[in-house]
Amino acid sequence: MTTRRKITLALAVVLVLLIAAFLGHDFVYEPLKFRYVILRVESAKTPAEEREAFALAAYSGRVWELNRLLPQELPDRARHISGDWVLELEWMESSAWTGQPFRAYRRVLDTNNMESLYVRYDK
């Protein structure tokens, strides 16, 4: 094998690995990471767990919107949530599969726990 072929092969392998890394990040790592974060946010049962889940949500991505939803505004996957304070947590990152932003829904146990979700520009 000539030196030129070895260099071409090495560059092709590096290019394929880079493309695989970018696609793996967008199509595998990001959805799994946000699925875990959404599970933690939606399954928190105590105020302490809720505080930790909100801190993890803020750490894991850019929280884009926090919306207080009425029961009739809830999507089908969140219809089981009851209460007057239902939070929709939306990240700026979106799924490469659907193009929709990642969203979590939950009934807020303690509104003071939401402090970690607010962006602080004065610090």
Question: Any overview of this molecule?
Answer:
- With 123 residues, the protein is α+β, with helices and mostly antiparallel strands.
- The chain has one domain (3-117).
- It has helices at 3-43, 47-60, and strands at 63-69, 86-94, 101-107.
- The protein has a 3-stranded antiparallel β-sheet with strand order 1-2-3, with helices on one face.
- A hairpin with a 6-residue loop joins strand 2 (86-94) and strand 3 (101-107).
- Helix 1 runs antiparallel to helix 2.
- The N and C termini lie far apart (60 Å).
- The mean pLDDT is 89.
Features:
alpha+beta, 45% helix
How is this structure best summarized?
This protein has 123 residues and is of the alpha+beta class. It has two helices and three strands.
- The general outline is elongated
The fraction of residues assigned to DSSP E strands is: 15-25%
List unreliable stretches of 5+ residues. Answer: none
Write down the secondary-structure element order: HHEEE
| Major sheet: arrangement of strands | 1-2-3
Structural domain count: 1
Whole-number mean pLDDT = 89
| Number of E-type strands | 3
How are the SSEs placed, and which strands pair?
Elements: H1 3-43, H2 47-60, E1 63-69, E2 86-94, E3 101-107
Helix pairs in contact: 1-2
